[in-house]
Amino acid sequence: MNLAFWKNEGDDTAGQVDFSRLPRHIAIILDGNGRWAQRRGLPRTAGHKVGAETFRTIATYCRDIGIDYLTVYAFSTENWKRPKDEVGTIMTLLRRYLLEAIDTMERDNVRLRFMGDLTPLSGELRALVDRCNAISDRLSGCQCCICINYGGRAELVHAAQCFAGDCAAGAVKPKDLTEESFEQYLYSGGIPSPELLIRPGGELRLSNFLLWQCAYAELYFTDVLWPDFTKAELHRAIAAYQSRDRRFGAV
Ligand code: IPE
Ligand code: IPE
Ligand code: MG
């Protein structure tokens, strides 16, 4: 693999990473945008704008180094509690990103997938999501999952409802449910669980993200705020992951 693209980073963090042993799936909680802006005397929305750029950079880099799945937490079921203008800015940034993705995903061979209850989104946004999904169906490349109006608990309840519906329709029986079959009812059905979960922004919690899928994920927390997150930070997170002893309950 040609790894020349990381040589300009001006640091040696890439040297800490074994690029032949990368996690297949990385999940990131995109946190710290608001504080990044507030520390600069800017409105919180400015942080979301810069955070969206960081997302582009990191998602592209993950594709370049051969990460198969990148899942990002962009908007939670709880984030509707924020001021209207902040929610509006996030939705506008999402719209811009989707429009851009529609033009570039084929060229970049990046599939997009959306996790969460999208029904409260505007008709325009949902139509853009549908277009991205239709393009993704034709592609085979790295998959980027964007969690919008996503909550881990809501996802589990939704999966339980879908399973109950199949039971009521006579398609399955309650006793046939296994961990493997239940997974297919999650928004993430068909995607392997993340091996590495990264949370920038300094908080040491999951905030309702991927509660089922992260059962055995390696957790990496950093105080760096998401707009300041760089490839070097990603290298540090991957290197930390690679240094861990993943026992899965065995010895
Ligand atoms: C971005 O970070 C994540 C979103 C909910 C969109 P925040 O907006 O939570 O930033 P902080 O945590 O307030 O700094
Ligand atoms: C988690 O961040 C949600 C997203 C990044 C989308 P929050 O900022 O909403 O989480 P809390 O409030 O600190 O737990
Ligand atoms: Mg936050």
Tally of separate helices: 7
Order of helices and strands: EHHEHEHEHHEEH
3D shape: globular
Radius of gyration (Å): 19 Å
**What percent of residues adopt helix (DSSP H or I)?**
40-55%
The main sheet comes to: 6 strands, parallel
Bound molecules: 3-methylbut-3-enyl trihydrogen diphosphate, magnesium ion
β-strand number: 6
What topology, given as strand order, has the largest sheet?
3-4-2-1-5-6
Unreliable runs? none
Brief characterization of the structure:
This protein has helices at residues 33-38, 44-65, 84-108, 123-137, 152-168, 179-183, 231-242; strands at 25-29, 69-73, 111-115, 143-147, 196-199, 218-221.
Question: How would you describe what is shown here?
Answer:
The chain has 251 residues and is α/β, with parallel strands linked by helices. It is built from 7 helices and 6 strands; from the N terminus they run βααβαβαβααββα. The protein has a 6-stranded parallel beta sheet. α2 runs parallel beside α3 (84-108) and α3 runs parallel beside α4. The longest helix is centred in the middle third of the chain and has 25 residues, at 84-108. It is globular. The structure holds 3-methylbut-3-enyl trihydrogen diphosphate (IPE) (2 copies) and magnesium ion.
